[in-house]
């Protein structure tokens, strides 16, 4: 019998395939940026639509008008309530805004204000929270997160962070049309699944062992135990995933992308939105974190021809 040659089922890079700890994913790496700005933002996935645009890549379709899918992420303004100074991964000082209204909304008590000094830290972050109450899908409690700040040096970053402390930052102030971003989110949960659906392994022939959707071999004789790389049933979905180089086609007002009757299971958009080319992980209403692209530093505004406003019902 001939030997079958095929790739190993299931990437080890995605192990362990277990449920995410929190729906608010953490960002483990922030790229550098010379201009004074926030390097990230957050929004809520509203749905998908169809757009037409002129292909400005190096593909065979370059220069032609093409149709593609796009994801709409509603991004209400984020409020900056603090500044965090860090040095080699350790928190040095937190400077929290003293606005009682902001602290009450976050469920925080009045905290002693510690000033962040530029000569004692190596990195500057802002502490910000989302505004889901301004959306129309019923969520009220905001998510708190840490966002890196761009600038030439630490003093430059700290100056910009203090200028937006206690203020709201809009989505259009952070990312420009044509900019590439990385999306960080928790994917759609699919529960406990078998090895065929979870890893894409082949089904057994009818006369093999009386079973069809199972693994034919659990591994070699030695070592005398089942290794963790063997495709086995388990949790599928609801994993934290980072997708690189997603292109923002447009940062637009809600009226330009609201479809007839609103988006299924979401409703009508009320805030600024990111129109992102392609798909984004997670179901509707899920928090999507956007980060300045770590592998691509290109900002080329696309020529967007049309956005479908047909009903998605």
Number of domains: 2
Structural class by SSE content:
mainly beta
Rg for CA atoms: 23 Å
CATH architecture of the largest domain: Beta Barrel
Provide the residue-averaged pLDDT: 91
How far apart the termini lie comes to: 52 Å
Q: Which characteristics define this entry?
A:
313 residues, mainly beta, Elongation Factor Tu (Ef-tu), domain 3, Ribosomal Protein L3, Chain: B, domain 2, 2 domains, six-stranded antiparallel sheet, six-stranded antiparallel beta barrel, 15 strands, 7% helix, 34% strand
Plain-language structure description:
Strands 1, 4, 5, 6, 7 and 8 form a 6-stranded antiparallel β-sheet that branches. The protein has a 6-stranded antiparallel β-barrel with strand order 2-3-13-12-9-14. It has a two-stranded antiparallel sheet with strand order 10-11. The chain has 3 helices and 15 strands. The mean pLDDT is 91. The radius of gyration is 23 Å and the shape is globular. The protein is mainly beta. The termini are far apart. The protein has 2 domains: 15-20 and 31-55 and 64-75 and 176-204 and 227-299, Translation factors (Elongation Factor Tu (Ef-tu), domain 3), CATH 2.40.30.10; 78-169, Ribosomal Protein L3, Chain: B, domain 2 (2-Layer Sandwich), CATH 3.30.1430.10.
